[in-house]
Amino acid sequence: ARLSPQVPTCWIRPLEVGQSHVLGKEVTVTLLDSNHCPGSVMFLFEGAFGTILYTGDFRYTSTMQGEPALRGRHIDRLYLDNTHCHPHRPLPSRQHATRQAAHVIRMHPRHQVVIGVYSLGKEALLVDLAMEFSTWVVVSPWRLEQMRLLELPDVFTTEEGAGWIRAVDITEIRWDTLVSWNTLHPTIAILPTGRPVKVTHPNIYPVLYSDHSSFSELCEFVKWLKPCSVIPIVRGGICQAYFQKYLSSAPQALPDLKIPKPVQESVQQQSKRKAQEPRRLLKRAARHSVPRGVVYESPEKHTEKSEEFMGVKVLQQNCCESAFCSEGCTCCHPGKEKGKEELSGEQPGVARAASAVSQAPVSDEHFPTGFAGQYLLTPLNILKQNSSQKFDKLVEDFFRRGEAS
């Protein structure tokens, strides 16, 4: 299902990618293409607090080294998408994964092909397969509208039967739907994901297609950028040790300041609420017994068997070519279960950012000098927990001061 932004439109400011934008008089932000799903960007922040690069979801490519905003830039803190930060899980390039998906299709010349995708992402895979097999890709009306807004090649249609490749929501790829589809026509399903999945039907084929950087790509990126520190943005992920040898020896520019008391108290209250959630979630789960669709496995169970999915092996041909078999791990996406998609102030990377907030207490009347620096280094949800009314007023005053200047 499509999700509308949970942000009031009055706070949304469209920014051009590749251009530097000044916020007030204290912070400059530059948006850079992150090579993830359409419209995804990295954020480069510069100010008195130093220089911060927040990758968000991204897949590194060597062309990023030609980006003027990054070339020769000193980075104090790198908030890194560490989705696949594990040296013992292979992850091929997207080009190689596309060839693997095409091979699966060629093995089933008389079958209809259903591809499970999220609400956004994997569009390039669909286009490449449509061009490879000279067929339309059948999609829902709202997805067709989305493809047109993205100005993708005209290979999509809503007409049933016009093409023999169909894109559906990934939750539809499960045992009961495969049984139903195969009663009408021989059908296979392709799951383009880098995450280990539990295969529930012999006609489901996982393909290691990921929009996140492999381990070797992450190493190449950090080695080239040479930041002072690396902070993982995926909750529970530990990757700093892998990059220690690539870090700059320059002194840390950002001070490690304490979180103001109002924020600390807010975090403590949130932790208490979190502790009560498991029981409520268990009760809720007991009331819902509908099919779960794709069931993701814990990546830790597949460290040594990353190409085997619950007894069904991913095709091996060309999969171990040195040009493509970069080391990495697993993938996630918009409806994904990993911590990154649930970014909050409690995550490792963001929690470290919160520690850089000024000690100055937050006044009820006005925000102290240096608002932009504190605002940037404090998770928005933590700021807002103090008082939603105060939060809205502070942001409104900040934008007014920026416009006045």
TrEMBL record:
Top-rank EC class of the record's enzyme: hydrolase
An example GO CC term for this entry is: chromosome, telomeric region
Q: Which GO terms describe its molecular function?
A: 5'-3' DNA exonuclease activity; beta-lactamase activity; damaged DNA binding
Listed under catalytic activity are: a beta-lactam + H2O = a substituted beta-amino acid
Name its GO BP terms in alphabetical order: double-strand break repair via nonhomologous end joining; interstrand cross-link repair; telomere maintenance
Residue stretches making up the DNA repair metallo-beta-lactamase domain? 201-235
Protein name as it appears in the record:
5' exonuclease Apollo
Q: Which Pfam families match?
A: DRMBL
Mind telling me which InterPro entries this protein's record contains?
DRMBL (IPR011084), RibonucZ/Hydroxyglut_hydro (IPR036866)
Q: Which organism is it from?
A: Aptenodytes patagonicus (King penguin)
Q: What is its EC number?
A: 3.5.2.6
Report if keyword Lyase is assigned: no
Entry's localization field: Chromosome, Telomere; Nucleus
Which superkingdom, per the lineage?
Answer: Eukaryota
Q: Which UniProt keywords apply?
A: Chromosome, DNA damage, DNA repair, Exonuclease, Hydrolase, Nuclease, Nucleus, Telomere
User: PANTHER family annotated for this entry?
Assistant: 5' EXONUCLEASE APOLLO, DNA CROSS-LINK REPAIR PROTEIN PSO2/SNM1-RELATED
Q: Which family does it belong to?
A: Belongs to the DNA repair metallo-beta-lactamase (DRMBL) family.
